[in-house]
Input
Amino acid sequence: MLSVRVIPSLLLKGQGFVKGKKFRDHKYIGDPINSIRIFNEKQADEILILDISCTLNGTAPNFELLSELSSQAFMPLSYGGGITSLEQVEKLFKIGFEKVVLNSIVFQNPNFISEAVSIAGSSSVVVSMDVKKNFFGKYDIFSHSGSKKQAIDPLEFAKKVEQLGAGELIVCNIDREGTRFGYDVTFLHKIVTQVSVPVIASGGAGSLNDFQIAVKNARVAAVSAGAFFVFHGKHDAVLIQYPEYKSINKLFL
Output
């Protein structure tokens, strides 16, 4: 186990993994089964799988594919996307996922968090928060894969989901997602100071140094990235990579 978790975030769309920028222009990056096998070989500490089309299309998680992915994975898996019922939560745990990630459903039914916690415990229920800075320099929260603005302040939202029992909080800046320009460290630190649960940084990582800055300056408990792990070079050639265990741990000594 790494001293700080470094988590590849893989976006599922249909039957394949994709990656884009700022929640748009998604590019196919590979077969999910093969991608999981590569991360096995590279000894990834944990994998986050997010289906970006389920909620928008009104479809349930693809349990057949997810079960196959779980059977291939040597590391803990988390899943988010299209979760609308406790039966789905239970099924995800039964097929081998360690954590569920809730987003859009939380705005429709906040108590769904505590209901999910009653099934598997707080440590297995994660809430993700996607934010974007508006014209006035304030941050807005968006759900439904970044397509629907929510009328709640991000800091208030973070406190609320913690009170409802969420065990972790993923915070992603939409404008940085996929850009590899670095995390929004200032905003991340604001969230960290408001909650006691672990905060996972997401959106913008482009180097190992970005991981280090987020941990040391924002005080996040873990870092997540997508483009950093699947693209290489200025032309975004698809190349799945994961730093060696020793290289990562040296960052956080």
